[in-house]
């Protein structure tokens, strides 16, 4: 379990977020929502260790991670940035195998077992046919799925993603989110920043609303997020529409013009 207690983070001359507290349990999908510049990426970078100037506590299974080594941190948390490009002609399997780096000794190469773990991750996401294709030549959706496979190969229990559906077409967004939900079924915790409120309503077990240096934690977003919450967050009038689809009920957000 990830637990954040009384976190104050930002930069040397600027506090971006203050008094942030929330928890993420095994199998949670936590959607971080907020306007541009509100601090979503700063929160993510602080949790993963790229922004180490902070007060408060970040705990994994009750242990403060502030002094963890990069190897130990990498075995607990996988990070998928907004975009990742490579100038080298790496195959997709090479990118996925990079998830084993924290398990390798200095100057050692991936073992047969590492390769099997990488291939199994690609099979789980049904992208094994991309194995020998050049990563830079894949579509945006395919590259994102390869990065998710890399995170699975890392075998961490927490995957943190910064706006993972940016620049993906609608079909690839749905494909990727469905794969992420399968990851949560395996007990993996997903934490992702997103600009799409519907993702919190359709997939989230928890939402974090980020604005004006504060973070509000909302359990069961599909039940508890309101039109007023979204209007306050984005400063636009929003209507939540409930759709009854046979044995399923879904909610979508529509802006009012």
Features:
single chain, 257 residues, alpha/beta, six-stranded mixed beta sheet, four-stranded antiparallel beta sheet, 33% helix, globular
Describe the model.
The protein is built from nine helices and twelve strands. Helix 5 (140-153) packs parallel to helix 6 (170-185). The chain has helices at residues 40-48, 70-76, 92-97, 112-124, 140-153, 170-185, 197-203, 221-224, 227-234; strands spanning 2-11, 14-24, 29-33, 54-60, 63-64, 77-80, 158-162, 189-193, 206-211, 214-219, 238-245, 248-255. It is 33% helix and 30% strand. The mean pLDDT is 89. The strands form three sheets. A six-stranded mixed sheet has the order 6-7-8-3-9-10, with helices on both faces. A four-stranded antiparallel sheet has the order 2-1-4-5, with helices on one face. The protein is α/β, with parallel strands linked by helices.
- Helix share of residues? 25-40%
Mind summarizing the main beta sheet? 6 strands, mixed
What would the average pLDDT be, to the nearest integer?
A: 89
| Number of beta-strand segments | 12
Low-confidence stretches: none
Class computed from helices, strands and strand pairing? alpha/beta
- Overall outline: globular
Reading side by side through the largest sheet, how are the strands ordered? 6-7-8-3-9-10
Q: Rg from C-alpha positions?
A: 19 Å
Number of helices: 9
Beta fraction of the residues? Answer: 25-35%
Q: Helix and strand string, N-terminal first?
A: EEEHEEHEHHHEHEHEEHHEE
Oligomer: single chain
Tell me the distance between the termini: 41 Å
């Amino acid at each position: 379990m990830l637990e954040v207690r009384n976190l104050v983070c930002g930069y040397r001359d600027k506090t971006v977020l203050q008094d942030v507290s929330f928890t993420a349990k095994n199998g949670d999908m936590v959607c971080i929502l907020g306007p541009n510049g509100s601090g979503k990426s700063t929160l993510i970078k602080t949790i993963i260790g790229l922004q180490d100037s902070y007060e408060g506590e970040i705990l994994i299974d009750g242990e403060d991670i502030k002094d963890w080594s990069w190897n130990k941190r990498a075995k607990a948390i996988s990070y998928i940035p907004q975009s990742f490009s490579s100038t080298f002609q790496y195959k997709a399997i090479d990118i996925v195998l990079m998830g084993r780096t924290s398990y390798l000794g200095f100057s050692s190469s991936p073992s047969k077992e590492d390769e099997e773990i990488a291939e199994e991750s690609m099979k789980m996401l049904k992208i094994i046919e991309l194995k020998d294709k050049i990563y830079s030549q894949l579509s945006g959706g395919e590259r994102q799925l390869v990065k998710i496979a890399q995170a699975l190969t890392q075998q961490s229990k927490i995957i943190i993603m910064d706006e993972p559906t940016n620049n993906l077409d609608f079909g690839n967004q749905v494909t990727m989110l469905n794969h992420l939900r399968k990851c949560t079924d395996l007990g993996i915790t997903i934490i992702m920043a997103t600009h799409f409120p519907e993702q919190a309503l359709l997939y989230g077990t928890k939402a974090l609303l980020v604005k004006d240096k504060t973070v509000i934690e909302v359990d069961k977003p599909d039940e508890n997020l309101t039109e007023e919450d979204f209007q306050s967050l984005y400063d636009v009038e929003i209507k939540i529409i409930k759709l009854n689809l046979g044995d399923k009920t879904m909610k979508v957000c529509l802006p009012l013009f």
